[in-house]
Amino acid sequence: MAGHGADEHPHGADRLCEVGDRVYSRAVRRGRVPRRDAEPVPCLLELALLHPDPDDMDWLVPTSPQEVMTRLLRGMHDEVSASQRRVGSAVAAVEWYAGLGRQVRPAESGAEGPAIRVLDGLARIQAAMDEATQACTTEVLTVQPGGIRREAELSEGLHRALALRGRGVRMRDLYTHVARHGQGLLTYLELMGDAVEARTLDEVIDRLILFDRTVAFIPANSERTMALELRHPAIVEYLVTVFERLWRLAIPLTAPLPDTGIEGISHREQSIAALLAEGHQDAVIAERLGISVRTCRAHIARLSETLGAASRTQLGVRIAQAGLDGPPPSVASPSLSVPDQGSRTAR
Fold this sequence. Notes:
By secondary structure, this protein is α+β, with helices and mostly antiparallel strands. 42% of the residues lie in helices and 15% in strands. The chain has 13 helices and eleven strands. Helix 3 packs antiparallel against helix 4 (87-101), helix 10 (267-277) crosses helix 12 (293-307) and helix 11 crosses helix 12 (293-307). The longest helix is centred in the C-terminal third of the chain and has 17 residues, at 233-249. The termini are far apart.
């Protein structure tokens, strides 16, 4: 892409460069174009006229001309008082897009936009999230994996959360139990008051954000530099159902974690024991519970000491004998006894 940087394309969607005009027109006629075709015209991706195909990242699909028209008209409305001279070019561009849109079959140009959109890059993800936040009127549901939330991350999104609270939007957040130990989260919840309700689980699904049960955002790669914006009603409803079921299983942040019923074994160690019994490696257990591998191994060492196990093999046997090979209880369980441990009995 040398020699074709964004500085050589200082324009908006209302006046495409000649090469951009050709590539976008071809994408509309054919339904998609190879990603390499857009390399000379990064403007098309920067202006969101093309975006990655969810089914094949080597291809780019066009934003429908009707959606582009809607954007242009909205922008024209906002700018007309400050920049009357742009009105003529914007209207001409709308006419051009309208003519081009007539070449597209109705099934390809839904007025509501694509049901699945790939957001490539943190700036694009944030812009889409900001747009959804501004349009939200009733409810936000989120799943936040990864353990303790960084204070910088919480502070960065605080202004959006306060804006939602100001509009009467209710928020429900799911975290892992580890997040309870982060002062940043406690401060954030104190600032938000009763606008936010938080619960925790031993482990949660990957990050999920739902606005008004109409649009959802999920990661599209492990680095979280890409995301999917989902507007298909069936997909969004499915994700809402997943959230609601996790929510019913979760424990309110204001309530203590249930006692394991075995002296010397914490709730987290019981979760680790259950995952060890399933055959998971230390790194996998740490990732699922939102803790570091080092912390995970320290808990395993304490678990071995409490259960009197001299090896991992013996630890597995002890876990089964103690009944720790199942998921932790949501409420205090009946008294349990640790085999062969004498005084180490349930309280």
